[in-house]
């Protein structure tokens, strides 16, 4: 279903020859209206890829009528030529999509940083994709944006007469301030730009922004939400926002579940924090601790590494009041040895760490992955 | 030579049975005076092991006459009982070292967090170590503090009639704000406490604090500098400080060279930064980027990952003015593709990354390691 679950959208995914192995690498998503409202959230990395710089400008215009996405190259750190290439991509799309202008066409790219895209293949690919646009093209589009993803990722939520659908890619370089991910969400609800923007920011803050696979922040992260208004229904904001968050949460979990080389999904819940910011800071510190990530991989309930990670933060807590549970067993009580660590069963893919700061009423959940030899292998050979 | 290179010191290293494999696990370093001046630097982790809390108190008294160090257990996150055990360790040492009081005896521990030490073995071990104290015992002491270290680490620098010597352990959990390391430095120079403190802090700030093997900060880091005054020489402060820094730098490089599972030592030099703080922040961000660390392991000059790491910092820079060299080849110029990456030769263990922020006159060097499957293996099985 993906981005074509909602009415008013067509999509396509094709092999343009950007990837040398011939796999699909170019996706096109078109909003056929009547409305072309849009919102976007982009990487907070200060080194931004050309398509991010371009799409941020497009979003300022308030309307997005189509998105061109490519895998096989990030077009990041590619200088003025890289930006010209993104511009040419939007112009080409405007040319093959009658009635659209380049200034309404967002572009997203993913792949290796620091390499120019093969425009002699990409530009003809846009024409080819336009010819294949279909209200059933959502799955093909989701497949075409994969890089090291082992599966394509889609999600759908429905309201009373309206739908939110989406697709995502991302399997490495996943970290807050957005994961290396490209996400396109579509809806046929009749929602204006400000309504989309609020729903999207509220959703990403507690979903994609709380995924931390490997602590690395990308140059290309892009999450777009496009509304066609084709259902003719304007839902209550909260109802709509819930649906957007549901789809984002679903896709974020799929990203963690497909993280490069991971064998465990780690759900880190920080409770009794003095503030939500404290909870998130502690959760991220735990999520990024390589020693702990290795221990989880080895099914070792090494809670000392959790405390060690908490101790590096500025959050409010007293060391001798900290409690830590792993899969429900409180292995650390009052900053010291708690229940028998032998009671912890870590055979399953999902591992739950609860860190109790005993400092207040706030909480947050961060999702992470273990660190494995497979992660090292995938990422030491990626560009070669 | 180690901690007994300087006059006035004796040391021993023995197997007390703390480690189940029977390897040496207890070291004793004694300052026989005439002076017992000392300075110490400890972990900045807010979760501090019992021996750190104890030794911080001892240092406040201004005199340290002996140090008991054990491997085989960190005595961290062990609650009131853990602190009592550290206290008992110092009391036992005072008992077997006539003329010394427990309040002058520092304690340092390393090993697994969250496990109580086997005091029934440790305490008799102190008596055994005291019986073996020798002015030639420095090497044995250095061997007894090893955990996953593959080699013991010692260094010496000499002045005109005086000497600074030292030993270190540490092979993982190496990060700024001190690595997981135990370091004891000794000198026969006649220097008072404030002089030692200044020399030690100035040295650690640019040596141990700029080592970042895996971004993980320990609960037990301890660096002690003891002065016996036995040479009768009081060197000029700068001369003495140079010697201390030389020994710290030597030991810090040995730590990086022996980091768990590492196949590459990565020297990250950040140049043309607006401030030294900016240079250090950028250097650490690069040092902690798992994707880059994997790429270095794969001998892949993936400079995009360097830019991506720089982009997550608050340092002053413009993305399109960044330059990056890997082993002397400027693969990134003005934030974009520079010299041919095929020119980069990464066959050797040392890899040099230069990040030019083009924002000012300051610089800093951070040392890190690559991320390897061996690191994952060592750390996923450490406690089991």
Automatic annotation (TrEMBL), chains A, B:
Location of the active site: 180 (nucleophile)
Site keyed Cleavage: positions: 179-180
GO CC terms, sorted: cytoplasm
Residue positions binding substrate: 147, 169, 180, 260, 379, 384
The enzyme's E.C. designation: 2.3.1.35, 2.3.1.1
Site (Involved in the stabilization of negative charge on the oxyanion by the formation of the oxyanion hole): 110-111
Subcellular location: Cytoplasm
Superkingdom as given in the UniProt entry: Bacteria
Catalytic activity: N(2)-acetyl-L-ornithine + L-glutamate = N-acetyl-L-glutamate + L-ornithine; L-glutamate + acetyl-CoA = N-acetyl-L-glutamate + CoA + H(+)
Swiss-Prot/TrEMBL keywords: Acyltransferase, Amino-acid biosynthesis, Arginine biosynthesis, Autocatalytic cleavage, Cytoplasm, Multifunctional enzyme, Transferase
Pathway, per record: Amino-acid biosynthesis; L-arginine biosynthesis; N(2)-acetyl-L-ornithine from L-glutamate: step 1/4; Amino-acid biosynthesis; L-arginine biosynthesis; L-ornithine and N-acetyl-L-glutamate from L-glutamate and N(2)-acetyl-L-ornithine (cyclic): step 1/1
Family: Belongs to the ArgJ family.
Subunit structure: Heterotetramer of two alpha and two beta chains.
Protein name: Arginine biosynthesis bifunctional protein ArgJ
Lineage of producing organism: Bacteria, Bacillati, Actinomycetota, Actinomycetes, Kitasatosporales
């Amino acid at each position: 279903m993906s981005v074509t679950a909602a009415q008013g959208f067509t999509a396509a995914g094709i092999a343009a020859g950007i990837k040398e192995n011939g796999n699909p690498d170019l996706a096109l998503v078109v909003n056929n209206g009547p409305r072309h409202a849009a919102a976007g959230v982009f990487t907070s990395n200060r080194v931004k890829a050309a398509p991010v710089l371009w799409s941020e400008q497009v979003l300022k215009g308030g309307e997005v009528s189509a998105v061109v996405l490519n895998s096989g190259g990030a077009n990041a750190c590619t200088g003025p030529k890289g930006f010209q290439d993104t511009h040419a991509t939007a112009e080409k799309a405007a040319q093959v999509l009658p009635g659209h202008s380049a200034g309404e066409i967002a572009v997203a790219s993913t792949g290796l940083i620091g390499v120019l895209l093969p425009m002699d293949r990409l530009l003809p690919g846009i024409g080819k994709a336009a010819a294949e646009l279909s209200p059933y093209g959502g799955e093909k589009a989701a497949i075409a944006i994969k890089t090291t993803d082992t599966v394509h990722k889609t999600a759908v939520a429905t309201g009373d007469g309206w739908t939110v659908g989406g697709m995502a890619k991302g399997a490495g370089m996943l970290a807050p301030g957005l994961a290396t991910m490209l996400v396109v969400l579509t809806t046929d609800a009749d929602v204006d730009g400000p309504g989309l923007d609020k729903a999207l920011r509220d959703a990403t803050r507690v979903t994609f922004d709380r995924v931390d696979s490997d602590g690395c922040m990308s140059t290309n992260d892009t999450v777009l939400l496009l509304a066609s208004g084709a259902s003719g229904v304007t839902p209550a904001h909260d109802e709509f926002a819930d649906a957007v968050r549901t789809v984002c949460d679903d896709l974020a979990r799929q990203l963690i579940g497909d993280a490069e080389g991971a064998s465990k999904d780690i759900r880190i819940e920080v409770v009794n924090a003095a503030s939500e910011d404290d909870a998130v800071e502690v959760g991220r510190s735990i999520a990024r601790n390589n020693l702990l990530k290795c221990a989880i991989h080895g099914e070792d309930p090494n809670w000392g590494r959790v405390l060690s990670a908490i101790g590096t933060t500025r959050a409010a807590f007293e060391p001798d009041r900290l409690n830590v549970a792993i899969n429900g067993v409180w292995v650390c009580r009052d900053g010291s040895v708690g229940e028998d660590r032998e009671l912890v069963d870590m055979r399953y893919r999902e591992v739950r760490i609860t860190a109790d700061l005993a400092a207040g009423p706030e909480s947050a959940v961060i999702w992470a992955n273990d660190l494995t030899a497979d992660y090292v292998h995938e990422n030491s050979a990626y560009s070669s």
